[in-house]
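Work Package 3 (structural annotation) set out to generate three-dimensional models for the target panel prioritized at the project kickoff. During this period the team completed the workflow that converts sequence records into discrete structure tokens, so that structures can be stored uniformly alongside our sequence database. As a representative example, we reproduce one entry of 263 residues exactly as it appears in the project archive.
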Amino acid sequence: MGRVIAVWVMLIFGGVFVFGQTPTPTPTLDCAELTTRVFRAETKLNDWPALARYRDDNKKVAPPAKNEQRVVFMGDSITDSWDSPINGGFFPGKPYFDRGISGQTTPQMLIRFRPDVIDLKPKVVVILAGTNDIAGNTGPTTLEAIEENLTSMAELATANGIRVVLASLLPVSDYEVRNGKPIIQTVHRPPDQILALNKWMKEYAAVHHHTYLDYFSAMVDDKGFLKDELSNDGLHPNVKGYAVMAPLAEAAIAASLKHGFRG
């Protein structure tokens, strides 16, 4: 424990001490802020994929009832925030389970795919993932690596009799302003990479008889940005954004169930 804290303290301060060199000055942190950062770092180190997030919830999930059209939504903050009352709630009355975790990338989702998707025995899984990979949330990556992780999730689902819906990434925008400063989302999530990943998903879904859920086309403006009225930060949908997404998701789920399962 002591060694872990010591290592993280050094990483937080960014100090690399070499004999004969003066360390680069770093911002001063008070004890409370340092403690908070160390706690967060240690928590992430101990459970990198956040398997604990839904562990207790999953234990409470009963087996699906006969003819239940159960659906699991796997994703990041866009999925995670969907069940917030301020966003209209998460498909009230539907046997749908939200298994989004804010900030996550596809390798993290792949690790938790069995407990958070397969073990819940859904008919359909809706996967919305990749924007945080592009942003480098868990380190530099490539589109090929993201595609491989999405492929692995789709193959795991198929092997367990679960129909797959691959959801397009949402566009981003640079329209929003916070504290008088513009929020530039396209630097971390270049639109050309979003377009390329969506193109791959659409083609992959067609070849492997999955359903492609096209949020992008319904939410993009004529400049290629996320429509201003659908987001408050240029990245995450607001209540109007989720109102656009919900019927598209329902239609994709219905299409997936209608087409039947192809293993």
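Residues 4-20 have pLDDT under 50 and may be disordered.
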